[in-house]
Design goal:
Number of domains: 3
CATH architecture of the largest domain: Orthogonal Bundle
Strand content: 5-15%
Largest sheet: 6 strands, antiparallel
Structural class: alpha+beta
Protein name: Protein kinase domain-containing protein
InterPro entries: Kinase-like_dom_sf, Prot_kinase_dom, Protein_kinase_ATP_BS, Tyr_kinase_AS, Tyr_kinase_cat_dom
CATH topology of the largest domain: Transferase(Phosphotransferase), domain 1
Helix content: 40-55%
Keywords: ATP-binding, Kinase, Membrane, Nucleotide-binding, Transferase, Transmembrane, Transmembrane helix
CATH class of the largest domain: Mainly Alpha
Organism: Rhodobacter capsulatus (Rhodopseudomonas capsulata)
Radius of gyration: 25 Å
Shape: globular
Pfam family, one: Pkinase
Length: 450
């Protein structure tokens, strides 16, 4: 940003309430700054219109519309609104939650991509946010990588930002910019190009989300870089190359990328939840013939030969180990992408050693006690496999399930002993219920034993 367009300087105070710290970035209508709320001391993001746009009535209306929309939305996947201010000079300020992160565009520009399970995790998070705004009768209309913020490199905490182009007229072609174009050409739905009656609605956001997820998965986005000529690539349903991504992700994308919005999937949350469940089921049920090639799992150090009675069960655990650990690490986000890919291999090797041990639960306890990202991720992967493996004794499965529950439980959560940065009461409850069911199974088994 040039000196002539920069509106605020570090140290300046807005309305005696917010002290400007630094420039975060420049958008279409102005600039966004990191600031401090002087009353509470917490950081915020302050968006201010540039002088040129402040003189444009239509731009002012867009800015006011963004603040109105954000005030109505309350969801963890949507940037949180704090207040709107106007100073004596007539400048408008939108004060929002400050999130320490980078836009999705930042990672894509560096060639980083996600595996299918993580793409679905990101999709589910954004689907939950879109479900919230669509329920309020809003359409974002500009779902694109630069409007998706990734806090702390964790895609499972992604947030949608920039509601300046949002419309509150679902099912019509009316908006505050009339029939003019809104959105980024690379990630626009066919109806935004004027096809299918130019009727922009919830399905428009769903299509854009599908294109974004294609990009994140490493697939070529039809029409990207062609400008308005992209309309020729969006007239028909987009077919997905299923050889490079998982079948559940392929199925989701094909539902989202139907050309006619009338036939497009718009009930996003159940769609993604089912795909996530299908992915977990496929990985957990992977047969021996589908085991990852040797290059995918690093060679393990020499181990003590297992006792004769344990060899077959131990082999069954190791066959699916690589996939199970990758599933367990699915929420780790961009920290495990690109140049950081070796973290997964280390965790796979550590989990493999734990499952080869004569007392795998003791080895898992040792990993947890040692701590560190690799050890904790390996412990979780091992526990997930032990908890779900029908070959294991019910007591082992119960102990493993309880250990996972304690990693989630707010009463026992310890970042030094859990791979999860924050507790999750709902997840803890699910695993405690599963442990209780295993206890009942063990009791029933004991009653029928001679």
């Amino acid at each position: 940003m040039s000196a002539g367009t920069q509106v605020l300087k570090p140290g300046s105070v807005v309305q005696d309430s917010y002290r400007i710290e630094s420039l975060l970035g420049e958008g279409g209508m102005g600039a966004t700054y990191r600031a401090i709320n002087l009353a509470t001391g917490h950081p915020v993001a302050v968006k201010v219109m540039s002088p040129a746009f402040a003189a444009n009535r239509q731009a002012v209306e867009l800015f006011r519309r963004e603040s109105t929309h954000l005030r109505a939305v309350q969801h963890e996947a949507i940037i949180r609104y704090e207040t709107t201010l106007q100073d004596r000079e007539g400048r408008l300020f939108l004060v929002m939650e400050f999130v320490d992160g980078k836009p999705l565009k930042h990672y894509l520009a560096r060639g980083q991509r996600l595996g299918s399970a993580d793409v679905l995790g990101l999709g589910l998070r954004l689907a939950q946010g879109l479900d919230c705004i669509h329920a309020l009768g809003l359409v974002h209309r500009d779902i694109a990588p630069d409007n998706i913020l990734i806090p702390g490199d964790n895609v499972k905490k992604a947030k949608l930002i920039d509601f300046g182009l949002a419309s509150d007229t679902i099912g019509t072609d009316k908006s505050i910019i009339g029939t003019g174009f809104a959105g980024k050409l690379d990630f626009c739905a066919p109806e935004q190009f004027g096809l299918f009656g130019n009727r922009v609605g919830a399905a428009t956001d769903c299509y854009a989300l599908g294109l974004v997820l294609m990009k994140v998965a490493g697939l070529a986005v039809p029409g990207e870089g062609k400008g308005l000529a992209a309309i020729e690539d969006r007239r028909d349903d987009i077919g997905i190359d299923g050889t490079r991504i998982s079948e559940p992700l392929c199925r989701v994308l094909e539902r989202l990328l139907v050309a006619d919005p009338a036939g497009r999937a718009i009930d996003l949350v159940p769609l993604f939840e089912q795909a996530v469940l299908d992915t977990a089921h496929r990985l957990d049920k992977t047969p021996a013939a589908k085991a990852p090639p040797p290059s995918a799992v690093p060679p393990l150090p020499p181990a003590v030969e297992p006792a004769p009675g344990k060899a077959n069960a131990r082999a069954g655990l190791l066959i699916a180990l690589g996939l199970v650990v990758l599933l367990a690490l699915g929420g780790a986000g961009f920290a495990l992408m690109g140049q950081h890919g070796s973290a997964r291999s280390d965790a796979v090797a550590l989990a493999g050693q734990a499952l080869q041990d004569d007392d795998p639960m003791a080895r898992v306890d040792a990993l947890i006690a040692t701590g560190g990202a690799d050890n904790l991720n390996a412990a979780l992967g091992s526990l997930m496999k032990l908890a779900n493996d029908p070959v294991q004794p019910l007591q082992i499965r119960r102990e493993a399930t309880l250990a996972i529950a304690r990693m989630y439980d707010p009463a026992t959560h310890d970042p030094a002993r859990s791979p999860f940065a924050a507790p999750d009461p709902a997840a803890a409850q699910r695993f405690y219920q599963k442990a209780a069911a295993l206890t009942e199974d063990a009791a029933a088994q004991a009653r029928v034993s001679p």
